[in-house]
Amino acid sequence: MMTQNTSAITSDERTRGMIVHLVAAVFTILGALVVWLLxxxxxxxxxxxxxxxxxxxxGIFAVEVVAWILGFIIWPLGLLVGLAWLVGVVFAVLGAVTxxxxxxxxYPFGLRxxx
Length: 115
Prior knowledge:
The chain is mainly α and 115 residues long. The chain has helices at residues 11-39, 45-73, 79-100. Helix 1 packs across helix 2 and helix 1 (11-39) crosses helix 3 (79-100).
């Protein structure tokens, strides 16, 4: 993903970028997918942020699925589903705060599935 110069990011782009992360925080992978679909053909800051949020939420979802399955085998591992969800929410909120400051946000880890 390309990172835009923060001085070139308009207030409107910051707002859309912040909404991307907040929607991902509340609606997880489905919210990130919907926002990415809305911005995938439009170059710019919101698309960059939507792509990052979707890739991160895909990774979180994968961890949740594995933890859910393992929870049937060893029940305490099922608690990792909640922990993965919490990590997803925390990093999405951090993304919203960072983007609102006019800075590009990159999640600390995530799969690069969607470009």
